[in-house]
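Notes from the 1:1 (GR / supervisor)

We went over the backlog. Supervisor wanted to see one worked example end to end before approving the batch request, so GR pasted a single chain during the call. The sequence is below; no edits were made to it. Supervisor asked that the structure be written out right there so they could see what the output format looks like.
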Amino acid sequence: MFRINRRRWNALDNLTRRDILREFASDLRFAQGQETGQTAAYAMVGKGDLMLIFFRATLEALQEAQRDFLRSDLAGYLIPVADYTSVVELGLYESSVKTFRALDEKGLERHSEEWQAAVQETLDRQTEAMAPRLYPRIPEAQYVCFYPMDRLRGESKNWYTVSIEERARMMHEHGMVGRRYAGTVKQIITGSIGLDDWEWGVDLFADDPVVFKKLIYEMRFDEVSAVYAKFGKFYVGVHCKPEDVEEKLFG
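Structure output shown during the call:
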């Protein structure tokens, strides 16, 4: 996320500004057509002016995308205000419980080499079957809402001391709320433990921004959110297609 250095930007003549924006729009158009990674731009509402979302398959590719953008002429007129790094992940609580139970019934000692191999085999099958969800494309929706979050580790409530069976139950109830919005919101959950300051990042994409409020408000009443969730700052933006950059960002 960036703020535009308006003083420096406004000091440029019109021709220079248009050349810089034309270059940015061209880079954005090129990135959107790639199969191995996409980039999307959003005009922010509050907390900044420009939000860039980079989807890449590896950390090296992500760093390269960041480096290339920071080398662009436009980057010289922007002030960073926030950033977030995470990896797309799927909630597999129910699947994990079933897998662990099946291995227990076979008499395999947990965390033994044989047990680890059986778990890895299951994960490999799931990864192949769920590849479209693990490597999604950035939705074409008009609006985006991003926020980071943690699970509580307090004196009386600690998510990480709850059994996986109980966590699976709560996450199932939590997910049922999200499914009611499946036709209006595209949700992409990313994990960031060891990668950034929070534990998860949530990306919501929709063509009606009010849906963000409805969905998140309704989820606040779930046990998993009401008891165990801690939320970071919320960032909202309007999708900028390459041809919209000048109007929506610098109008």
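Supervisor's comment: Residues 14-32 form the longest helix (19 residues).
Batch request approved.
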